[in-house]
From TrEMBL:
The keyword Transferase applies. It comes from Nonomuraea jabiensis. InterPro entries: Ppm1/Ppm2/Tcmp, SAM-dependent_MTases_sf, TcmP-like. It holds the Pfam family LCM. This is Methyltransferase (TIGR00027 family). GO terms for biological process: methylation. The lineage of its organism: Bacteria, Bacillati, Actinomycetota, Actinomycetes, Streptosporangiales. The keyword Transferase applies. GO terms for molecular function: methyltransferase activity. Keywords: Methyltransferase, Transferase.
Amino acid sequence: MAPEKVRLTGEKATLLATLYGRALDARSPDPILGDDLAADVVERIDHDFTKTGMNAALAVSVAIRARFIDRWVAEFLATHPEATVLHLGCGLDTRVHRLDPPPTVRWYDVDYPDVIELRRRLFPERPGHRLIGSSVTELRWLEQVPARAPVLVVAEGLLYYLDPGEGRALIRAIVERFPGGQFVFDAVSPLGLRTQKLNRPVRKADAHLVWGIDGPGELLAIHPRLRCLSAVSAFDIEGFDRLPAPHRVAARIAGLLPAVKRAAVFYRLGF
Ligand SMILES: C[S@@+](CC[C@H](N)C(=O)[O-])C[C@H]1O[C@@H](n2cnc3c(N)ncnc32)[C@H](O)[C@@H]1O
């Protein structure tokens, strides 16, 4: 098969960095996530991935973030084997392959049309797995999804790229369409937005983070049915000990500052 050429810019190009991060982890001697499919897919794309700004140390952060979210998703699916999963801003993430849900789970991977076309060419099909090519904020895509409960909405590395008003409208539309479920996502605070230039893959992609979320209260104000089940600082998740020494020490020191600790948070909301 001829290698795939990719022409992605801005926030779409950031998916190449996270994919490459998971591939670097898979190829490392002691993988955290062990995403071999990500490593295979990187081999099939004609692209200089070193230009994404991803490196071995950042790959550890990518792998521990993905593993953390995978665990929340697996926990939900273990008790809801008939769930609908909306995996928003999926990029080329292999989450559905890593978690391998039963065919009773209806799993929708959603991203921009050109990203979804690329996915179709790169990944094998699976029963119960569907792809939707649309901006997540053009809400008509939701009509393609039967409004059954429970729904699990997963958005890794997405929310901060959405216009805040459009992001809130998306969350509100999902809460109003489905009888119940959960949202699982990572977010950055306004401080996270102000320091985004420190994030090399974001800088290299010329992407712009525009939605900073200042704690659970701001999310709960979006809809009265929302409640916060978990809010965990990215500095508190398991796996930081796997960072190379200088990064580990820097992360430990930064994590002692409350404002820095709140700069990147994983949220789990119920409704
Ligand atoms: C940092 S990447 C994360 C990709 C994937 N979740 C991962 O962890 O590898 C950001 C993703 O969000 C997608 N994205 C950004 N804004 C979007 C929008 N309005 N609608 C759909 N996808 C969007 C991009 O195309 C890209 O795939």
